[in-house]
Specification:
By secondary structure, chain A is an all-beta fold. Chain A contains no helices and eleven strands. Chain A is globular, with a radius of gyration of 14 Å. Chain B is globular, with a radius of gyration of 13 Å. Classes of the chains: A mainly beta (about 110), B mainly beta (about 120).
Chain lengths: ~110, ~120
């Protein structure tokens, strides 16, 4: 039973437009959320995060929005660039048995067309 | 780049054989993790370590064992490889048990194919 869901497997946008990547979660105990970016043949790299006590965090072209009541977060990339083409993973932090774990979504492949 | 080296990076093995993947870090971080990534599943935690000789199971630990005899090395062993263990394996390290974007780093992955 997936606790972190990325329901769309892929997204294609034009360069310069906005990319919106969505993520839903079911566990209300998650207290921190992260987005990772992954290029082929490389490990995931951290992109941006948000605490559950906030509703927005912005870092340059990347903004993450959190709607706790809907258990939904989204990553906005604007303007999108071809170099943003990658797989994006949403992850949530949970505390289990005194230690913290990250729970990941399935990932979404973003393609930004020149 | 965080000092994480995974070896081997690519391996093809036969069903029923034991396989060991190695994660080596030069950051002296206390916490180390093994994840697997499969299409349709994202990254799932196999095992993790919170210190030398201290390990615990993750969500998909069946068929895997780990060992950590020194801070810098975390070994993942497939005791008898099966085709369902064909996957990409990622090691991660963290200096803190408080996981955040700036505290956990991933290696480049080990591609394992079991035929």
């Amino acid at each position: 039973d997936q606790q972190v869901k990325q329901n769309s497997p892929s997204l294609s946008v034009q360069e310069g437009r906005i990319s919106i990547l969505n993520c839903d979660y079911t566990n209300s105990m998650f207290d921190y959320f992260l987005w990772y970016k992954k290029y082929p043949a490389e490990g995931p790299t951290f992109l941006i995060s948000i605490s559950s006590i906030k509703d927005k965090n912005e870092d340059g072209r990347f903004t993450v929005f959190l709607n706790k009541s809907a258990k939904h977060l989204s990553l906005h990339i604007v303007p999108s660039q071809p170099g943003d083409s990658a797989v994006y993973f949403c992850a949530a932090r949970a505390t289990q048995g005194g230690s913290e774990k990250l729970v990941f979504g399935k990932g979404m492949k973003l393609t930004v067309n020149p | 780049d965080a000092g994480i080296t995974q070896s081997p990076r690519h391996k093809v093995t036969e069903t029923g054989t034991p396989v060991t993947l190695r994660c080596h870090q030069t950051e002296n971080h206390r916490y180390m993790y093994w994840y697997r990534q499969d299409p349709g599943h994202g990254l799932r935690l196999i095992h993790y370590s919170y210190g030398v000789k201290d390990t615990d199971k993750g969500e998909v630990s069946d068929g895997y064992s780990v060992s950590r005899s020194k801070t810098e090395d975390f070994l993942l062993t497939l005791e008898s490889a099966t085709s369902s263990q064909t996957s990409v394996y990622f090691c991660a390290i963290s200096e803190s048990m408080r996981l955040s974007g700036n505290t956990i780093y991933f290696g480049e992955g080990s591609w394992l194919t079991v035929v």
